[in-house]
Amino acid sequence: MLRRGHLATDGTSDLTTVTHMTLPAVTNDLERAAHDLAEHGLCLVGGVLGADELAEVRRRLYAAADDDLASGARQPFVMDDPADRSNVRVWNLLNRGWCFVRLAEHPAALHLLRGLLGWPLQLSNISANITGPGGGRMVMHADQLYMPQPWSGPQGANVVWMADDFTAENGATRVVPGSHRHQRTPGPVDQTAPTVPLEAPAGTMCVMDGRVWHHTGDNVTASSTRGGIFAWYTIPIYRTQENWFLSLDPLVVQQASDTMLELLGYRAQGLGLVNGRSPR
Predict the structure, then answer these.
(1) Residue 84's pLDDT is what?
(2) Residue 68: in which H helix or E strand, if any?
(3) Per-domain residue ranges for the chain?
(4) DSSP 160
């Protein structure tokens, strides 16, 4: 595990000192996964998606990416290198297929999120990153970097759905296990902190504490793509990254479950009320 780091007086960091840094094993035991999430800042859960469901998720993801390219809607992400056309972002997946709605409210994901963040929660965003051959890395960051520091605990969490095998060679997300304990976002001197690739087979679900340091890996393969779906959840005091009230297809709202309506803010507890009551 990574030692608890600090900035030295000469401006360097001791975060490069590692005694033991490994990923937790893939498990299908949610209680084991909850333990891994607390200990490592992330957990890997296998057996969540069946073969047919995984095939549909992957097919629809790549079809959505092709549609964006054909329509001219594809744009580089603000944290990506604009010259790197190998990293493809696909936004607002709730409008791109019901399989993504099912992922956003998957019982296994919500079970682990409730244990980490409590309830109610809000779905802040669900998008995808497909990195192709030659795709480069992002900067090291933590997903709750826009929340006031130092952190006293998790304010959000990412659920990563692996549409393809994640390997060190095809650009698997690289993480710093245990970095959630630093309670801050990585600074310039932390960009070279040692990382490990988030390697797991397609269909695996990873829940990652919003404080964990990570970045997209380099895709050094000749022909392999790595598609990952990222559902970002936060406690309700933060504004969502995606403005669901303006961007969602009305059909998604009309057919959403009660749980999904809460995650999207169309039903509310405490915040987001209308005349003192939950919207109806």
Answers:
(1) 57
(2) helix 51-71
(3) 30-236+243-264
(4) E
CA angle 136, 223, 91 (to 5 degrees): 55
> 201: which 2 tokens?
């087979």
The CB density around residue 148, as the number of other CB atoms within 10 Å, is 8
Q: What per-residue confidence (pLDDT) applies to 64? A: 96
> Residues 217-232: pLDDT tens digits?
999 999 999 999 999 9
Q: Which pLDDT tens digit goes with each residue over 184-238?
A: 999 999 999 999 999 999 999 999 999 999 999 999 999 999 999 999 999 999 9
Burial of residue 50 (CB within 10 Å: 0-12, 13-18, 19+) is exposed
Strand order from edge to edge, sheet including 226-234: 42-45, 205-209, 156-162, 226-234, 122-131, 87-90
Tokens of 130: 């497909």
Cα 245 from Cα 120, distance rounded (Å)? 18
- The structure tokens listed for 221 are 């393969």
Both tokens of 248, joined, read: 């969602």
CA angle 112, 118, 122 (to 5 degrees): 90
**What is the Cβ-side half-sphere exposure of residue 188, based on CA atoms within 13 angstroms?**
2
Place of tokens 């795709």: 135
The class that CATH gives domain 30-236+243-264 is: mainly beta
State both tokens at 83.
């010259």
Angle at 165 between CA 54 and CA 83, to 5 degrees: 110
Q: Name residue, tokens 């682990």.
A: 112
* Strand 196-197 to 122-131 pairing: unpaired
